[in-house]
Specification:
4-stranded antiparallel sheet, alpha+beta, Na+/H+ antiporter like fold, 14 strands, Alpha-Beta Plaits
Length: 534
């Protein structure tokens, strides 16, 4: 065994490959329908760490940065909308979860007679918070803080992962229904269309451009029929009473257009004509980031863009809407015009699979620099966001804006998922090796008291957080689990939650709660040690 450990330590890439292979094999094993998934890497790494196998720290650091950056990219398009809807609720959830964890730590440590430095470390470890560990070490200057952290950290990681995987099964949660609830909670109105017969005499001679601008209806006219003769839906096309127009927009937009033009017609049968529609993918860099009113598709190309699909969203574009790389757009116009405009849009599907490494590198660089910046805190020294908070914030900004100048930060889905999975594997492997080095020795020397405290500090806030999210706020299971992982500052737990269903709700909730929890843990961890020492 010593020979094997020596060989693996001499060849870190070989050791990493062994961890990945054995970890994924373990993760694929199913017992009663339950599998560890990527988290199997953690358990294999803990065993190998106990045997004395090491990996360069930079691999784990790279893993954390890649994983959280990809999470930020995924959640960015949804983040601000979610904060506007649930900002106060997320603050309440994070605060109550950590307060419950702190109270449980305080009284458990007093009851079991655990010294303050160890208790502070257990509190940070159960919440898998390295900023909390750093703040406690800086305040207390006692190496036993790290000992308590080392005991509680594996339980904190494993406890959240098992909770995420077991509790939904015990509650018999229907993931299809929960995904629909998660989608419905993001209050994006559905895009619809309707036929309207123009009866307003004031519309005589008005152009489509003038009508769409009236009263900011937000809807778009995509087809015009005058006595069953198709007219091109150009900006300068004139309207008149008696015509039928097809309008695209939200229910509210359609109602406004109805008040402006005339009543809806439910039985209108569209006659055959040269007017058609097509769905194209934006892959031409020269048009990315430009406003539609500047590109003048109607005037120059004779087509109207009626819908845009971006990430998980569908919306009707306005004059200042921009096209971004990877957007799917619906165009309406003459058949020949629709064919001619294809080369302007690009519509080269293979380009969607290209990964742009310059924006990725710039995003990671910005995140790492932000993570290293010291943030002064009254009575608690300084706080650094670290390699978890900095790249997460950078990914969040990059995902929200999509582009900065000429740089497009959006990535192909396959590339983003690969970075996410590889980052998680590197992080879990490194964390498992570090925890495995000292776990058994610490347990033998400190006895069951630390384990009991770590168990309480992990399970009590977990259950409380999930109950608050489900029962008080009535959130769907995906959002509840993501917010819970954010409140527990558990990146591995988020990795398990994102595997449950194909939806970004866990990541969005996590990145909304995580910064609040990160700050609170950094304040509460040293406070616990100080108060216990009095």
């Amino acid at each position: 065994m010593d020979f094997l450990a020596s060989q693996l330590n001499q060849h870190p890439l070989l050791a990493l490959a062994v961890i990945i292979v054995l970890g994924k094999l373990l993760g694929n094993l199913r017992v009663a329908g339950l599998a560890l998934g990527t988290s199997g890497v953690l358990f294999v790494a803990m065993l190998l760490g106990h045997l004395g196998i090491h990996l360069p720290d930079v691999l784990g650091q790279l893993g954390v940065a890649l994983f959280v950056y990809s999470i930020g990219l995924q959640a960015g398009p949804h983040f601000w909308n979610t904060i506007r809807q649930r900002g106060t609720a997320y603050l309440v959830l994070a605060s109550s979860t950590l307060l419950i964890a702190w109270i449980a730590s305080f009284f458990t440590a007093r009851w079991l007679g655990i010294e303050p430095a160890l208790a502070s470390g257990v509190f940070s470890g159960a919440l898998t918070s390295t900023p909390g560990l750093a703040a406690s070490l800086q305040t207390m200057d006692n190496p036993n803080v790290s000992v308590g952290f080392g005991v509680a950290y594996p339980l904190g990681v494993v406890g959240v992962i098992l909770f995420v995987q077991l509790v939904p099964r015990l509650l018999r949660i229907d993931w299809r229904q929960e995904v629909e609830r998660a989608k419905a909670s993001v209050k994006r109105p559905s895009i619809r269309h309707a036929w309207i017969r123009i009866t307003n005499p004031q519309m005589e001679g008005k152009t489509i451009q003038e009508v769409e601008a009236m009263h900011m209806t937000g809807a778009i006219i995509s087809r015009v029929y005058d006595k069953y003769v198709a007219m091109p839906p150009h900006a300068k096309t004139h309207l008149a009473p008696g015509q039928h127009v097809r309008v695209v927009g939200t229910d509210t937009d359609l109602q406004r257009m109805e008040l402006l033009l005339g009543p809806r017609v439910s039985n209108f049968s569209e006659p055959r004509s040269a007017i058609t529609s097509a769905t194209l993918v934006v892959t031409e860099n020269s048009i990315c980031g430009q406003a539609l009113e500047d590109m003048q598709f109607r005037e120059r190309h004779g087509v109207t863009i009626t819908r845009i699909w971006r990430d998980d969203f569908e919306f009707v574009p306005g004059p200042r809407s921009t096209l971004e790389f990877g957007d799917e757009i619906r165009i309406v116009g003459d058949t020949a015009d629709c064919q001619r405009v294809t080369h302007v849009i690009g519509h080269h599907a293979q380009r969607l699979q290209e990964t742009r490494f310059l924006p990725l590198g710039i995003g990671l660089l910005a995140g790492i620099l932000v993570g290293l910046l010291p943030i002064p805190l009254p009575a608690a020294g300084t706080l650094r966001l670290g390699l978890a908070g900095g790249p997460l914030l950078a990914g969040l900004v990059a995902g929200h804006f999509g582009r900065i100048g000429q740089l497009t930060f959006r990535m192909p889905v396959a590339a983003r998922m690969f970075i996410n999975e590889m980052g998680l594997v590197l992080f879990l492997g490194s964390a498992g090796l570090r925890a495995g080095e000292t776990f058994w020795q610490v347990m033998q020397s400190q006895g069951p008291a630390l384990l009991a405290m770590a168990l309480v500090v992990t399970t009590v806030p977990l259950a409380s957080s999930f109950l608050i999210a489900r029962q008080l706020f009535r959130w769907d299971a995906l959002t509840s689990l993501g917010a819970m992982c954010g409140a527990m500052t558990s990146t591995p737990g988020l990795g398990a939650a994102t595997k449950l269903a194909d939806n970004s709700a866990p990541s969005t909730a996590y990145v909304a709660v995580y910064p609040i929890a990160l700050l609170l843990v950094s304040l509460l961890a040293p406070l616990l040690g100080v108060l216990l020492g009095r």
